Amino acid sequence: MLRHTYEGQDCNLARSLEVIGERWTLLIIRSALLGTTRFDRFLETLDIARNVLAARLGRLVEHGIMEKVPYQDKPVRHEYRLTPTGRDLTRAVIALMQWGDRHLPQELGPPRRADHIGCDGAVHVELRCASCGRTVHDEEVDVRRIR
Q: Which residues form a coiled coil (predicted)?
């Protein structure tokens, strides 16, 4: 993980990566977007060490990306649900999936696709200008420091 101090790192991307940039964290978020909510199911589908999963879920709860909700009293058991902040990562996850499909293709094609629940059409992330509303292509983007 990145240092917590951000010394010389006045960067919105660095701040985001500090919370979600670790490999297991994004895979946990992906699993949650696919409907996984229970600790044992995360363990099973991710093949992740129990202590690593517990630490990552704790961090996601701490940052308001997931919430820990009891689903059983005796013994007490919890599930982990995405909050609106966590669901807001959908675009980032889909953008990374699209990038992988374009630049790291598999012979059998993509293993997952994001579909629109209303009509089953494929969902894609695109850049759009907030000023003119036009779709913007990668080569038309200038990332610049504003302060």
A: none
Q: Give the integer Cα–Cα distance in Å for 55 and 39.
A: 12
Residue 136 in contact with residue 128, Cβ under 8 Å?
yes
Q: Where are the domains of the chain?
A: 12-140
User: Any alpha helices (H) in 1-147, and if so which ranges?
Assistant: 12-20, 23-33, 39-46, 50-62, 84-87, 90-103
Report how far residue 121's alpha carbon sits from residue 80's, in angstroms, rounded to the nearest whole number. 28
70-78, long-range: CB within 8 Å, 24+ apart, which pairs? Answer: 71/38, 77/38, 78/39
At 144, which amino acid appears? Answer: R
The per-residue pLDDT for range 17-48, each reduced to its tens digit, is: 888 988 899 999 999 999 999 999 999 999 99
What are the helix and strand counts (H, E) for the chain?
6, 4
Query: What fold, for 12-140?
Result: Arc Repressor Mutant, subunit A (1.10.10)
